Structure formats: C-alpha cells, structure tokens
Amino acid sequence: MDNLNSLRLSTPPAIFEMRVYIFLEYIMTEETSLIWNPILRQYLVNAPHRMNRREGSTSCAFCDDITEGRVGPDQQVWLHPNDFPPLKPPVGEAYVVIYNRDHRRSFTQLNVKEVYAVTLLWRDLYRELATRYPTVMIFENSGASIGQTQYHPHGQAFGVSVIPPILERELETVIEADKEGLGCPFCRVQAELFESDYQVAANTSWQAFLPPYVRYPYETHLYPRRHVANIADMLDAELLDFAAMLLQVIRGYDALFDGAMAPMPYLLGIHQLADSRFHLHVEILAIGRAPGKLKYAASSESLWGLWTNDSSPIQKANELREAIARMQI
User: Of 75, 81, 131, 174, whose CB is crowded by the most CB atoms within 10 A?
Assistant: First the structure.
C-alpha cells in the first residue's frame, strides 16, 4: 500500500478519493479477473496470462497425468486443474474434464458407456462446485477452427461467482413466466417442438431439436423430458440416455453430406442453475454451415447481437435427422 500512501500525500482530497476508487478497482480486477462493463452492465473475464498456452507444444499435460502416476491405471475419466485458469478462487475455479485415457480418440470414437462415465463425472463436479458458486459452466470446444489447442479428448468446467449474461437472461424469462403463472418456458418450447419437423432425435429421457430460432444452421438443443434444473438432480438412467443422445447428434454432424463436413467443429455447453424453476438444456453450436464452409459471427452478430441464419431450420433439421438415422451407436 505504499503507492496508496504516497498518492494521499500529494493529491487534493476530492481527487484523492476518486483516484483511490480507481486504484482499488484496478487491484480488484487484477486479482479477480472480472471486469465490469458499465454500459452493458455485465462482467467479462480478463486473463492475459492465457495468451500463449500450449500452442506448438509436443507434450500432452493429460497424458502426463498417466505417466507420472497422478491417475490410477484403471481410471478412464478424471479432472485436471486448468494450468492456465481464467478464474481463481474466490471468483471462480477452472478444470479440464478428461474423457478418456487414449490420447488419439475423439469424442465420437467413444462408446455410450464411456460417455456415460463422463456424464457421471460432470454430475459429481457440478455437485461440488455448486456449493461455492452460483454458476457451473460445463462445456467443450471441439475443432482447430474454433481454437482447440489440445487434442486429448476433453472438455472444461468453470465455477463462477457471477451468472453470465445469457444464463441471466434465461433465468429472467423463467422468473417472468413464473410470476405470470405460465409455468416453465422451456417445457412449453419442448411441448411445441415435440415430434415436429424440428425434432432430430429422441430417446426415453431426452429429446433433441433444431429450433426455428437457432443462430447456426445445425445448432441443436437437447432437453431432458423431465423438468430438472441441473445435472446434480439427474438419475443414472437419464445420464445414460444423455450419453447416447450426445453421441447420436455429434456423430450425425459428421455424417452430413456423406462425411464431407467431418469432423464438425462445435461448441457444446450445459445450461443449468440451482433454481428449481430453471430447466437444464444443452446447446451445441455446430460451426460448419456447408461442406468446406464455416459460419462466422459477423459484424451484425458480434457487434449488435442481431444474428442471421442463412438457412432453413426445418431443412437443416431434416438433413441432420436423416444423417442421425444413418448412424449406428
């Protein structure tokens, strides 16, 4: 605090108070990584130490967990603390979720039982992080074109001390619907899309849709049939069906146009909250829009949030549904 004391001695009181506020704001954001945008009224994460991570590295930190004895010989899935965490306690925590011991396998090469083991780990992780944070973000970035730098099969998870803007807006919709006595808005959407031309797959516990309001041509939303707020409340049988549904949809992407879009790059995220009125759902943003072409977030989308989908959702749902039908799990 020497800098603060020298500032006090050399500055008039009013200006001193303003500069102290700025100084403390700087210290806080340096420590927490959360930066408040006063115009949009939302936080963003500042993490300059992540600029150069493992690009160009020939070693695999996750294989090192095996060779250096940090995981047992029979352990297939595990958590690896993020080596370059964008968030640190008490603001947040970051983990890498390892899907399989085999470095060479992709998610689509796993079987249902192996993906089921991943979903069980997701459930355990949510239960742990939810005791400390209001938001648990479980997600995956798949494909070099969207920034994947490690190819050992894995996803990620953040525990976050704030609710991100999209989750916050979804929760606001849920709260408003509840106030008006309309029930769960997600359940209503699910009922409207059930067995419609927008449905691409279904099993005992889950349904997958390509809704009319998707931003990406093959963006797919997965809903559990039962109203459940988060993965902590899901039954084992529901998680097994979840594993099967994930494989169906993502393998379906790779089967589009007879494999001409494989491997499909995608962003996957589980939307969930502790509020019992919320409805867990999964969004998979498939970045490919046609063979050899990607969907980029352009100016109207990135700068204003006005998305353009240059395709017919019903047509793309039909293409994906047919691709899934050709696949065997």
Answer: 174
C-alpha 74/C-alpha 49 separation (Å) is 34
Integer angstrom CA distances of residue 123 from 127, 137, 210: 6, 12, 25
**Which of these, 117, 93, 95, 110, lies nearest to 153 by C-alpha position?**
110
CA-to-CA distance for 218 and 40, rounded, in angstroms? 29
- Which pLDDT tens digit goes with each residue over 115-125? 999 999 999 99
DSSP 72-83: -TT---EEEE-S
Average the pLDDT over 83-108 and give the result.
96
Distance between CA atoms of 276 and 120, rounded to whole angstroms? 21
pLDDT digits 0-9 by tens, 216-252: 999 999 999 999 999 999 999 999 999 999 999 999 9
Identity of the amino acid at 64: D
Query: Domain ranges in the chain?
Result: 2-45, 60-329
Phi and psi at residue 259, to the nearest 5°: 90, 5
> Cα–Cα distance between 184 and 151 in angstroms, integer?
38
Using alpha carbons, select from 268, 311, 264 the residue that is nearest to residue 288. 264
Q: What is the pTM of this model?
A: 0.89
- pLDDT category at 328 given cuts 50, 70, 90 is low
The dotted CATH code for 60-329 is 3.30.428.10
CA-nearest of 189, 184, 231 to 207 is 189
Q: Helix, strand, coil proportions of the chain in percent (round to 5)? A: 40, 20, 40
The two structure tokens encoding residue 241: 């069906």
